[in-house]
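Think of the structure tokens as a kind of shorthand, similar to the way a musician reads notation: each symbol stands for something richer, in this case the local conformation of the backbone. In the example below we present two proteins back to back. Begin with the first one, reading the sequence and then the tokens, and try to describe in your own words what changes along the chain.
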Amino acid sequence: MEDQEMQLKVKRVSDKFTESMYVLANEPSVALYRLQEHVRRSLPELVQHKTDMQSWEEQSQGAIYSVEYACSAVKSMANSTVYFKSIDGLLRQAISMKEQISNSQGRSSLDVIPAPSPPAPSPSSQTIPS
């Protein structure tokens, strides 16, 4: 009896040991299977996110370039006030010279045009000597 009992206990221990070894041997492959399953499900979504991010990066790089270009244009416009003041001064000088030329031409044309002769006296206003 004791022999059968011992054989039963040894069989249980052996079965438990075999089951444990089976689980330990298969556990990594189950884990890898779960990882593979997860990757297969999530990979298309991750690829879509990546392409979206690349597109947004290209758009934002274009926008950044545009903003930098606009900022440099505004800065150069702020620096151009000196030139606009110079242009304003030159225009004022040109207008002044034009007025001087017009005035001098007006006077010289008056000098060239003969002065109007005094009107001839009317016969009624003349006195006839008697």
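Once you have a description of the first chain, move to the second and do the same.
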Amino acid sequence: MGKWSPEYKQLSSAVGVSMVGVVLGVVIAFPALALDAWRLEGDITLSEVEAGWFVSVAQTVSVAGSIAGGYLNDVLGPRRLLLAVLPLLASTWPVLLGCVHNLPLLLTVRVLQGLLCSAATASVYIYPCEVTEARRRGAVGVLPDAAFSLGFMLTYFLAAILHWSTVVAILPLFFLPCVVTVFLVPESPSWLLQRGRVEEARAILQQLRAPDVNVEKELLGMGPLGECGEASVARQPRLLLPILASIFLMVLKEATGQIVVVLFVVHIFRKVDVGILPHVSSMLVGSARLAANVACSLLVGRLPRRTLLISASLTASVTIAVLGDYFFRQDSQVWPDWVPLACLSVFVVAYGAGIGPVTCLMATELLPGAVRGLGSGLAGSALNASQFTLTFAATQAGSGFYICLWSYAAGSACLAAFALLLPETRNKSLRQIEEYWAEVSENITGKRWCPCARRRAPDDCEANAKSNTRNNDTELVRTV
């Protein structure tokens, strides 16, 4: 790696960790492969309730797994956390293959997979944003979502060409390149700086930045604003507000119903006749989402984040509402047979080109460095709770599935409205975004918050709040 340019090292590190999302995507989408195969073969029979638990139990435990993952990301760093989780996750597949006829053991394995997958997810989204400079953060920051889409697509493809047991047997091999890649990348300089390891952070930044980049200035921007790392989140609105914004953003992302589309796309195409085999239709939809993710990597650097998110959310709302009306009027045959394929394709394009990548990117960007791991964990926990609710409801909907689809249309519209309340993060450094939340908290409370205390600053301290912040920054400059 010594002869590689700094820009290449930077991008290869971010892309390498992002691609871990491929194997995590396979873990999430596996029920779509398994349930369809088991229904056709009849060898493994599950009732509707049992199938619902098999689909949604991973999301249930991920509520706790995401919080644990966020905490461990702050303690261990994203690189070491992934190195610990990935081998364990790979080892669960042989166990799953041996217990498919034992429902309690089968659900136990899915519980373990859900915990490990959710613990790793936060690091997959955080690391690329922390190692990439601001001008490239948009294009690189959407890669994790593209990697998850590729994982979903890979699941559909493997289901079409291989027996489900063969897929399970070979899946551990997909984890090996991920472990090697993560082992070779450097630790996040932002995490190192938050842990007080300034010299290591500087050395890594010098490896990842061009010679004309002011590394000392970037180090200063990565440092905590005041002493937020030691302050109580509950007493710091400038920390609490972005965490709440990130949580709401991820909940509304799931309110679009994308996880139901991922897990039930084959089942949907078995319920309607679109003139194409269900697995082929599923791969077409998966390909559309993946292509949209690639397009988003180009669009996100040229368009404001909020504009892209709002337009994609409104498009998704209209198409999923039409799909709901198709199922509502299915017996009367008002809509032509190609409508489900067209609606799902447009929906996943809207999701892949805007909703998924942009929400995940902004949810990470909005969080201050000192609580980025904690905030990502809480947002991921809320996301998984939403996924559990949606997937379990979908398995029990039966003929009323159109009601679920209409609720997803409403969720997409709410996401568009919420995006109007968020700050634009395009071409802004992480420090500038953190300062935005400090200003918002001052406007809400009417008082400045003293960086050296864990309580609201007294009146005689308000006049010197900016001076205190400058002194903290100066001290960090001396340190670096």
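Compare your description with these statements about the second chain. Residues 161 and 167 are 9 Å apart (CA to CA).
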